[in-house]
Each structure stands twice: as structure tokens, then as C-alpha cells.
Amino acid sequence: MIARSVILTTCARIAYPVLLLFAVALYWRGHNAPGGGFIAGLLTAAAIALRFIAHGRRDRSGASAPFITAIGVGLAIALTTAFGSLAFGHAFFTHTFGHFHLPLIGDVELATAALFDLGVYIVVVGNVITVVSAMTDREPGED
Question: What is the rounded distance in angstroms from the CA atom of residue 135 to the CA atom of residue 72?
Fold first, then answer.
């Protein structure tokens, strides 16, 4: 059994929420500025991988199953957004947006590009974590 590093565990505990908040910021500005679902997904996957590294293999059996499911969910969201414009008589992948007033927040722009980015985000997180899990999983008894 390999001893866990106190420094790595502590740094991961601090860095994890910071990375996730930065990923959220990148996601929300993505359809208007550099960023978006892909880079936010990579950053989120890096944060999750950091936790995997810091906490070791402790009870990770079946950890990739929800991420494999997430790939399908993300693809469904992205494809629904892409094909959804056809249902309204627009060209494939045409996006639209609207401005809405939300109480306590004010005017908010909601765009279908943000939904597509959400699908991309979920697919990227699911793929990266599934690959990282597959690369690090060992058969019982292997060292």
C-alpha cells in the first residue's frame, strides 16, 4: 500500500473548488468570448483526476460507470440542440437567443449555444475521466 501525500491531499482539497469555479466561469462566457464547453470540460476533468490522484484508488470500483452514462447524456443534449433548429424550420445548427428578466438577477441572455456547450461539457468530462480511469485501473493482484 502506498502512503498518501499530506501535501498533495491538502493542495487537491484547496484546488478542486477553485478549478471547478474557474470551469464554470469559462463555460458561461464561452458562447460570447473564448472559453466554452470543451475547455470547461477539460478543466473539470483535470480537477476530478487530481482528486483521483490525491485520494488514490480507494473504493473506485465502478467509478467510470456514471461517466460513461454522462457521455450519452451529453451527446443527446448536443444533438437535440443541433437538430432542434430543424423542428422550427431553421437550418441545421442555427442557434437563437432571448433576453429574459429573472427576479434578483436582472436581464439574462439565454442562448441555445449554451445548451450545446453544456452537451459538449458533459461529453468531454465523461470521456476524459473514463479514459483516465481505464488507464489507471489495474487487475487485482497486479503491482
Answer: 21
Residue 32 grid cell: 460570447
18 vs 87, more confident: 18
| Joined grid coordinates for residue 54 | 490525491
E strand spans, the chain: 97-102, 106-111
Residue 4's Cβ-side half-sphere holds a number of Cα atoms within 13 Å equal to 14
Q: What is the pTM of this model?
A: 0.82
| Rg value, the chain, Cα | 19
Return the higher-pLDDT residue of 102 and 40.
Answer: 40
Q: Is 66 helix (H, G, I), strand (E, B) or coil?
A: helix
3-state secondary structure of 122: helix
Q: Please spell the DSSP secondary structure of 69-96, one letter per residue.
A: HHHHHHHHHHHHHHHHHHHTTPPTT---
Query: Is the pLDDT confidence value at 24 over 70?
Result: yes
The predicted pLDDT at position 143 comes to: 52
